[in-house]
Amino acid sequence: MKKAVLAVITITMGMLALQSQAQAQDTSGNWLVRARAVHIDPADKSDPVGGTGASNRIGVENRTIPEVDISYFFTPNIAAELVLTYPQKHDVYLDGQSIGTFKHLPPSLLAQYHFTPDKTVSPYVGLGVNWTTFSKNDMLNGQGSLEHDSFGLAAQAGIDFKLDTHWSLNVDVKKLQIRSDVLIGGVKASHVKVDPVLFGVGVGYRF
């Protein structure tokens, strides 16, 4: 029992020493805040409306939005990123004709691995979850709506270009899993896979 306790203490102190050493080597800090301009490109895949006819008749408009994300580095290579924006308004189309609008708020949380954090060019990948909440549905004169919430996977790949100890430029690509039933008069009429690809460019500050 004593040997087990000593082993746990030794491992714990070793991990703390490694973390302290990593933090001492990186004087730029553990927090990274980025501001990006992000272009949303939806997949626009949907089931037949009413269960009959052609697929992919329902679409969501492309648009560019502002985005802010906050990252915390647990080690030089491993970080967690929270992606935030404000509710975004989108037009919805049926066979190319507008049938109304809705708003959505799509925060995502991702775990990241940074391959070369000590280099000027630092690529990374991330994997996590996305939660999208839909609101203010205004489709088909109030008869159409989307489900309230969507939960799905989020994946990303990006590169930070360091300008100095604190500032960096960033390019980033994300794929989000956003899906919802389409309701008409409260009855399911179709299922849409928005599943957008997000192309982002921005600036970051680490402290």
Automatic annotation (TrEMBL):
<dbReference type="InterPro" id="IPR011250">
    <property type="entry name" value="OMP/PagP_B-barrel"/>
</dbReference>
<dbReference type="GO" id="GO:0055085">
    <property type="term" value="P:transmembrane transport"/>
</dbReference>
<dbReference type="InterPro" id="IPR005618">
    <property type="entry name" value="OMPW"/>
</dbReference>
<dbReference type="InterPro" id="IPR000758">
    <property type="entry name" value="Enterovir_OMP"/>
</dbReference>
<keyword id="KW-0732">Signal</keyword>
<feature type="signal peptide">
    <location>
        <begin position="1"/>
        <end position="24"/>
    </location>
</feature>
<dbReference type="Pfam" id="PF03922">
    <property type="entry name" value="OmpW"/>
</dbReference>
<dbReference type="GO" id="GO:0044384">
    <property type="term" value="C:host outer membrane"/>
</dbReference>
<protein>
    <submittedName>
        <fullName>Outer membrane protein</fullName>
    </submittedName>
</protein>
<dbReference type="GO" id="GO:0009279">
    <property type="term" value="C:cell outer membrane"/>
</dbReference>
